[in-house]
Specification:
The protein is an alpha/beta fold. The chain contains 14 helices and 14 strands. Helix 5 packs across helix 10 and helix 13 crosses helix 14.
Length: 442
């Protein structure tokens, strides 16, 4: 079924570590599928297998594959100016973002979400004159030493603590850089955050978070939590940064901040903003902070910042989404809800109860233990430890691509036939998992 992909992996691994371009787990990494072409929500591999793409390049592919308007815009851009520092389309890209995103009064572009977050932190430090920032367990902000991994330290001094088996841990990190630059605490605990700010606020330049914690399992903020954080930042002169690299333009044109009704001082954007074919990220926010770049108090550089092909992709993506947002986003949400319903019902039918969290456009499923799981039943204990991994891998084998082990990203090109295919292949995946688990006996 995946013979040619296996051969491709063997050839590629000798020159490309792991035979892939990133180190985080995805359900199909064991076989490394190599793709040749795609259309809308379907993608075909080198062996000719058809897949339903709910991976979407880690959520960047909001439009679906090969949208004609998007492709034409990129081809036109290449035919006009392929490499220039500034162009006549720059203002359009900036104005589109400022029109959509509540906090965006000014914008600066870069390439990766990591860059955008680092630039936002630099702005916050310069604006406040303070050095440290607060981040939260389960939130991911990029591939930089001061942003990755760790768990909350003691309440008195919650510096990040390294631990064995950390999903976001890595060798080669600069010694103690995260500990010196940041505090790490549990999310959704306003009392814990308030205590930290009241005791260490004079050191804190920024509070950085995902407004909806997709990376930590699709968790929503507790009622009133974000408003309380906003008020805390205002009282103590701290810059509030929302990392909307995932949620920006995916949950709607205004992202999570618009949906939740809380406006940060700065936000980071990426992924869906440029449609998935070319990389563009941005930091956007209040003029009083962003103007530190204009006054040259804060430096911001990069060869490909604001490159013309990338800005053309931003314009094409946002213009298309703005053309009929209610229909486009509504279509994606409706189809993804049907997929979620089937996933949940299949889990129930096969005795694998699932919880589905997040939003329809970017949802996360996890095993939902019941009271019966408290009994010493080997099958229940097995599912508690392995359900998500087994389901994700079985779905990938049957041709449903997911992000990470248990994350589903929809796109605005989804059709009813895609839901039918999802149902068919998800059922096949659960049949395989249930057959495997049936071998476990007390």
């Amino acid at each position: 079924m995946f013979k040619k992909s296996s051969e491709e992996k063997k050839l590629l691994k000798s020159k490309l570590p792991l035979g892939t371009h990133y180190s985080f787990r995805i359900p199909w990494e064991a076989r490394q599928v190599y793709f040749t072409h795609a259309r809308k929500s379907r993608i075909w591999d080198v062996d000719g297998n058809e897949h339903l793409d709910l991976f979407g390049k880690f959520g960047a592919n909001i439009l679906g594959h090969n949208l004609p308007q998007y492709n034409e815009a990129l081809i036109d851009a290449l035919g006009q100016v392929s490499a220039a520092n500034l162009g006549v389309i720059d203002r359009t890209a900036v104005e589109l973002i400022c029109d959509c995103v509540p906090c965006a009064e000014m914008v600066r572009f870069s390439l990766s979400g990591t860059e955008a977050v680092l630039n936002a932190l630099r702005l916050a430090r310069a604006y406040t004159g303070r050095n440290k920032f607060v981040r939260f367990e389960g939130h991911y902000h990029g591939n930089a030493d001061n942003l990755m991994g760790g768990r909350a330290g003691p309440k008195a001094n919650p510096a990040p603590e390294e631990f064995e088996g950390d999903f976001y841990g890595t060798g080669g990190k600069a010694t103690d850089i995260a500990q010196h630059q940041s505090f790490l605490i549990p999310w959704n605990d306003i009392e814990r955050l308030q205590h930290l700010v009241e005791t260490k606020g004079h050191e804190i330049a920024a509070i950085l978070m995902e407004p909806i914690n997709i990376n930590g399992g699709g968790r929503h903020p507790a009622p009133g939590y974000l408003k309380a954080v906003r008020a805390l930042c205002d009282r103590h002169g701290i810059v509030l940064i929302f990392d909307e690299v995932i949620t920006g333009f995916r949950l709607g044109l205004g992202g999570a901040q618009d949906m939740l009704g809380v406006t940060p001082d700065l936000t980071t954007l990426g992924k869906a903003m440029s449609g998935g074919a070319v990389p563009v990220s941005a930091v956007a926010g209040r003029r009083k902070i962003m103007s530190l770049i204009e006054s040259r108090k804060v430096s911001h550089g990069g060869t490909f910042n604001g490159y013309q092909l990338g800005l053309a992709a931003v314009i094409a993506t946002l213009s298309y989404l703005r053309s009929n947002p209610q229909s486009l986003y509504g279509n994606m949400i409706d189809h993804m809800r049907l997929c979620q319903d089937h996933l949940r019902s299949e889990g129930q039918a096969y005795g694998i109860p699932l919880s589905i969290t997040g939003e329809p456009a970017c949802s996360v499923f996890s095993y939902a233990p019941t009271q019966a799981d408290e009994a010493p039943d080997p099958k229940a204990q097995f599912f508690r430890a392995n359900a998500v991994k087994l389901i994700g891998e079985a779905m990938a084998e049957k041709g449903v691509l997911l992000s990470n082990l248990n994350r589903l990203y929809g796109n605005v090109s989804l059709e009813s036939e895609d839901v039918d295919l999802f149902r068919e292949r998800t059922t096949q995946a659960f049949e395989k998992v249930a057959a495997f688990a049936a071998r476990f006996k007390a």
